[in-house]
Specification:
Layout lengths: L14 H5 L5 H14 L4 H8 L6 H8 L8 H8 L2 H13 L1 H11 L3 H12 L8 E2 H10 L4 H16 L8 E2 L12 H7 L15 H14 L9 E5 L15 E2 H6 L3 E2 L9 E5 L9 E3 L1 H5 L7 H14 L16 H13 L13 H14 L9 H6 L1
Antiparallel strand pairs: 1-2, 3-5, 3-7, 4-6, 6-7
Helix pairs in contact: 2-3, 5-15, 6-8, 7-12, 8-15, 9-10
Protein name: Lytic murein transglycosylase
Keywords: Signal
GO molecular function: peptidoglycan lytic transglycosylase activity
Length: 387
Amino acid sequence: MRALCFALMTTVASPVLAAECGGDFGQWLSGVKAEAIAAGEDQATVERFFDGAKPDARVIKADRSQGVFRKSFLEFSQNLISGDRLEKGIANASRYGDVFARAEQEYGVSRGILLAFWAFETDFGAVQGDFNTRNALVTLAHDCRRPDLFRPQVLAAVKMHGLGEFDLDTQGAWAGEIGMVQMLPGDILALGVDGDGDGLVTLKTSVPDAILSGAKLLASHGWRAGEPWLQEVILPDSFDWELTGLDTQLSAEQWAAMGVQVRGGVVAGGLPASILLPQGRKGPAFLAYPNFSVLFNWNKSFVYVTTAAYFATRLMGAEPYQAGNPDPALPVEAMKALQEKLAARGHDVGKIDGILGASTRIAVQKEQTRLGLPADAWPTMDLLERL
């Protein structure tokens, strides 16, 4: 599931090496071997690691098709969050209470967030992926779409292999992530934690290793201990929708003064926050704190991050959201057409992919403001027709 996100990069390929992609796979592989040896890896280890390595066409296919992130927040969250998954999360919180307590004490990361990612990434370790990790990494590093991202990950996997922490038959996600919380080799090398004290970092089989490594990763990206990340709120009818979105921050007290009410709680005093409307003014509303933005270092997808953050609040005792009755989501082709129209008006919407990401939302809100529509960043057929 973490396919769109790539965590902290610990090794950076030089521009020359990063440009070496595509073409004859054997020649390319020879270049990577030479780079690994030049970086200090033992030649025997390098030869053993790359022996039998080959491209995997399934990886390229998966990389080019990630339609799951085109779903709306309500659809996506209702698909991922079930009563069974909630029960398992609560049970695991109790079963591994000492591990989560350690994660909170040493890294300041809430067990709710760690449980949510553990659930969504691998269903608490049950589904860790069926792609050969070595072949997935060399496939993506050889491919010319993102070689500067994946070539360093290949070299990191070589180092892990030399340390006895990467078997050649290791299986994981199509994008090379490994283990219960799906981390890339470079992140494991830099941030992996030997939580069970066996001298190895094994995220596939050790719950303490996986949970504490995930916590350290989030802490490295600026997670703030003891602070919330998301609260569901009720907005007054007179609310100024143009103030919504992650690019607008006010203090929690200022929002409260405008009539924003937290469901089942109070605003976190003294913290900056944004009003988040994942499906516009007619759907659920949330107050997003600084820790919410940290989660985009785990996954770049807006709908994934919002769903994980919400699920984490449920695991910590929050009530189910008020779904409301939002306007229908645009079909994929209509969303692409909207993105094209927004881009033609000078907005940066990123790739024309039919996915309502953060940049598209900002552009939608700006056009809604220009046209005198409720500026809630939720695209409708009316907006598309007006453009």
